[in-house]
Design brief:
Elements lengths: L1 E2 L13 H10 L4 E5 L6 H10 L3 E5 L11 H13 L4 E8 L7 H17 L4 E6 L2 H10 L5 E3 L6 H9 L2 E5 L9 H9 L5 E3 L21 H12 L3 H15 L8
Parallel strand pairs: 1-2, 2-3, 3-4, 4-5, 5-6, 6-7, 7-8
Length: 256
Amino acid sequence: MIDTHCHLDAAEFDHDRDAVLASAIGTGVRGIVLPSVERANFGAVASICRMHAECHAAYGIHPLYVDRAQEQDLDALRLMLANEPAVAVGEIGLDRFVEPHNDARQLHFFVEQLRIAREFDLPVVLHVRRAVDAVLKELRRLRLRGGIAHAFNGSRQQANEFVKLGFKLGFGGAMTFPRALRIRELAATLPLSAIVLETDAPDISPNWQHEQRNSPDQLPRIARTLAELRSISLDELIFATNQNALQVLPALSALH
């Protein structure tokens, strides 16, 4: 299995990171994508990925971190991409959920990072909250090789638009809650070819770990939930979502 979104560098894992990774590998997780959130953690992500062959880096500036970002951080991003292996630019995007939000500043850093992704011919890992249409607008304007809309929570129409632009949709812990009817319906009925698995650990914990730290070893149970929602076998679900991840993040293919 491939966890397409996991912040293994987060402080929540500082005391047991190696054990968390070993547990994930023990449950069948063979690839983990680590998106960065700001220049300050580029180095931590790179270090973990150098030490662990299962971990693969994405570098970017998260919309919730742009208020403390500087223009030279974009140059630092280019430098990382030029000198370190990376499967994507990310985690980048727009967030209109957390208040207050500086829409203009978020948009500036998002657009500049889309341009960097195009410059390096890399896919992007997107963070999108209450800003799906605004993100889609920029993706149509600045065409690139696609990527992943992480923790997808939009409409079916918006899902279809992402797919048309070469994106896969990330589903994880939110889908495991019985009351999450809209997300579960999408997870059950969208084309299987459009879906990848993720944990977003330590965040978006699944139903059985509500308000606890999430971890990548929960991916198999998340996968089982999705297989049950779609009425297919777990093996079929894992094979398809792995192929989807390798297709949308081609740099992973050389590593698996």
